[in-house]
Structure formats: structure tokens, C-alpha cells
Amino acid sequence: MSRNRHKGRRVDGILLLDKPRGITSNQALQKVKRLFNARKAGHTGNLDPLASGVLPICLGEATKMSAFLLDADKRYQGVVHLGERTSSGDAEGEVIERQPVPELDEQQVNAVLRRFVGEIQQIPPMHSALKRQGQPLYKLARQGIEVERKPRIVTIHELQLLEISGKELHLDIHCSKGTYIRTLAEDIGQALGCCAYLGGLVRTKAGPFELKDAVTLGQLESQMEQGGIAALDRLLLPMEQALADWPAVELSREAAYYLRKGQPVFVPQLSASGWVRLYDGEAIFLGVGAVLDDGRVAPKRLLSA
């Protein structure tokens, strides 16, 4: 007798979660998945337990859009604590070095921050989810093991000083995917003539999604108690909102049919290029495609019918 391997219900959409401090992104994901009784779910960019803020969670077919959110820019508000270095690069680690903090004013700090705007090199921290031979680096770090990491190129689009408060710098950071804010904090401290660690972090934006529109786990539980699972479903965003800044292409019924068969199709008077959102003639979202050099649109990631 075969077992039913598909537990939970099919539910499609994006939940914009305000992840609390103190739990991992995966723990937050599992809580949401259980509340929605969802068969399938995934998050779109890891937030450390120290951090809070925007964590888009894709349910059902929306998981097909998660890779595009992973690639999207992010925005954070972070606190750089000067004068101390920790084993993990953040407030959860043990202090392993102390240095005097020089007298700093906004002009001096801003001059240093400007050095980090644009493309920069970062060496990923040991306390990260990167894997070495299948093992996350943070697990190796907890065993006292340090391995060589290759530097990577990331882009800091904006780096703004919000406030100097004692030994702490409050920053607004707009950056590319793959940016390690704890590494940025340590590097900023070094450039200011002292060590530093990341004292706190809030993700305020992920792709097109903003923190002001997110819901907390407490709000989800309250909605569930008051209105049941239907109340939760009303909080879901359409999955195409993850690609809100992409051009939209509407296909004829015939073109949509062949596109669903995996064939590139011709779209008359198409002015878009690159990646596009695809809709059929009834404004139903089909998935994503790419405009080819010959002007046809090729399917890349389609939703199940």
C-alpha cells in the first residue's frame, strides 16, 4: 500500500513576513508552513537569527519565483558597534579583541563610508550558510575550524550614515545579493582605525517588498484564531508581485498554448527585452520568459496549469 507523500494543501502565493530576532529563517518558514498547512514552501534569502525584517515566503507555485527574489537587491538598517571584535562578527559572538575608538565626526565617517560604495570585494565570514563539501561554514566555525574562503564581488549601491550614538554607527545599506553585512561592519571598523562587529540588523526591503507591508508571526496566529485559514489566505500576495518591475507581455490564446508546450512564440509589436512576465489573454499569470534575439519569447519558468 503506497503512502500519500503530499502532506498539506496546495496554496499559492507570497507571504511577506517580518521575521523576529532569535530564530532562523528556516524556523520562521516552518512556522508559516504549518500555519497555512501548505504542501510546499520556501524562503527567499537567509536572515541570521540576530536579524529581523522582511522575509518573503513563497508558497506552492510561488516557489518557482523564489530564485528571482534571491537575486534581487536588499536594503538594511544596521548598527556597527566600534571598539570590539567578536568571534562571529556580530553581537552573539564572544569578544576576542578590544581597541580604543578614535574621536569621530559625521564628516570623517562619511568619508570612510564612501570608500565602500560601488563594487567591493568581501571574504565571506565563517559564520555563514555557505557550504564546504556539503557542510555549512557556521557548523565548522562552531567546532573551531576555519577554512579558506575565496573573496567575492558584491555591490553597495548606497551606504548612508543615519546616526552616531556613542560607539555605534547606525547605517542604511542598499546592496546586491550575497552581501555580508557583518563583514561590511568589520571592514568599516578597520577603515576607521578600530575593530567592530555588527550589533543589530533589520532588513527593510527585499526586491520590491518593504517591511511596512510585512506581518509578524503573532499577527498570523491572531488571524488564524479569529478567521481560520481563510483569513490567512487573504494575506497572500499574488506571486507575480515578486517581478513587479519586469515588463508584462500578454499572449494570444494560441501563443499561450504553444508556450505552455515549451515552444518560443512570436508576439506582434513586442518592445520588451530580457526577462518578462507572461500572461494569457484573460490576464492570468503564466510564469516568466525571456525575449530571444529573433524577437520571439521563450518560456523559462512556467506555473502548473
Which short descriptors sum up this protein?
single chain; 305 residues; alpha+beta; Pseudouridine synthase; Archaeosine Trna-guanine Transglycosylase, Chain: A, domain 4; 3 domains; nine-stranded mixed sheet; five-stranded mixed sheet; 7 helices; 22% helix
Structure description:
22% of the residues lie in helices and 33% in strands. It is an alpha+beta fold. The protein folds into three domains: 13-71 and 209-241, Pseudouridine synthase (2-Layer Sandwich), CATH 3.30.2350; 74-206, Pseudouridine synthase (2-Layer Sandwich), CATH 3.30.2350.10; 246-302, PUA domain (Archaeosine Trna-guanine Transglycosylase, Chain: A, domain 4, Roll), CATH 2.30.130.10. A hairpin with a 2-residue loop joins β10 (152-165) and β11. The longest helix has 17 residues, at 217-233. It is globular, with a radius of gyration of 22 Å.
